[in-house]
Amino acid sequence: MATKNSGIYEKVGWDPGNGTQKAAWINGKVTTLTLPNVAGIGGMEATGLNLAGLDSHRRQDVPHRVEFGGVSYLVGANVASYARPIERMDTLRLVEGAELRAMLYAVLGLLGLNGCQVGLTIGLPVELVEDKAQALALEKEMAAWVMGQHRFSLNGQEAGVEIVRMRATIAQPLGTWLDWGFNQDGQWAKGAEGRKAPALVIDQGFHTLDLFGVEDGRPSPRFTAGERLGMARAAEMIGRSVTQRYGVELSLHEADGLLRQQLSGEKPTIYSRGELVEVGDLVGQALNSLAAEVLQFVERVLGRSAGKFRLILSGGGALALANRLRRQYPEAEMAPTPEVANARGLGKLAASGYLDR
Predict the structure, then answer these.
(1) Less crowded by CB within 10 Å, the N or C end of the chain?
(2) Same structural domain for residues 274 and 349?
(3) Residue 4: pLDDT band by 50, 70, 90 thresholds?
């Protein structure tokens, strides 16, 4: 396969989160990408159906179409409008889920890496990498499908990449700490004391809440932990409440969309019996309930040691819970664009030469 930079592979950090795919390509600058982690089997073929000239012309985001192995997948925004979403949050999706392969192809294609050789640093939840033997076994299983040449079609255009390097024993929240410490060329920029100073990342993802502690230049097992307290917990609560009150079933990502509406200042709404109804009270209740569980977990891990740490809030759910967390930890700082902080740090790690060591 021809490469844009002969003999040089492109350095990409990939955070295959459950809520959103995040990636960062380091190539003299940092290029980031986020994509809703939703996939479904199907297409968007035009039909002869119409509303006799009364069709709405309001443009909405449409999914990307990824084809490989004779199967067509829709990925990204508004998949539920065209196909039943595949919503897997189990570990096996990392090693046998064709939908994750479709998401990776979309990510690499949309970043503009068609025809390139690529090296990937992949971040995984703390619970999957804290046991070294388990982490290495999972990395080996992932490498079986990630490494090598890949041919696919993205939105009707033929594409291909060759993945020549891969590491997947990295905790996702470590990416945020690396993003804080590295410059965009993968060089440590915080000095020797910055590397040793106590820091703790609170990474609020879609499926998991991860804490990652650093002390004296080493990971701190005492202050590193993961729990399934991600934003999906709030989405599940919203879905149950909406079904109980209105008899309407929502997918996890549709319920999460209501959360995002409220956080952006919009009024979360659904259709019930053809009428638009506001559900902001249900969203607020779910957020408050999740925040209480998150604070209990963080306090249980930190105990009375919180004061010595630089606390960094990260992950797609960081903005949703920031005000509630800062009531308890007012000194906590928000990572820049927290949704992609892990991926950005993973990309900088790749740029540091980590994949060649």
Answers:
(1) C
(2) no
(3) very low
